[in-house]
Amino acid sequence: MGILKLLVYIAEEFYEEKNSLILIVFLSTFILTITDLIGPFNTIGSGTAALKEKNDELYKEIKVYREEHKIEPIDAKVDRVWKAIPGYNGLDVDIESSYKKMKSDGNFHKNKVVYKEKPPNVHLENLAPIPIYKGNPEKPMVALLINVAWGNEYIPTILTTLKESKVKATFFSMVAGLKRILT
Question: Does the reported pTM lie above 0.70?
């Protein structure tokens, strides 16, 4: 029995028994359930198109590229020597977004690959308050320290260059420490 025939049968039964309130509640529940299952954005056949996309060569090539270039996140940890070492976000290829960017010409392009960051499970906030003496060894970074003990006549030029280059640095002076040690 089709769904429509079943609905008509149920409606006739409730109508004959004059249980219109029960009929209204039943039909309302049925309509809400069907609407929820189908959803306002689903269209007939969209599942077939998605399945076809996942079976074509471009989609497969993006999946292979993903496996070769995936970087797993690294959790923050406490080291016996270096104390707290920050975590490092991983990278994963967003297959669906990459496919959408490349499907117009049907060819794989590295510059059209879309990446998404994967945060680590353990962050510094999850660890006890401990000093950080070292960054994550997998993260390509450098710390720039500038000793200004030799004078301050070059500091404005250095600050301008750092600002233009959008580089951060730490300035320090060993003069005060040396005077204490030598006296």
Answer: no
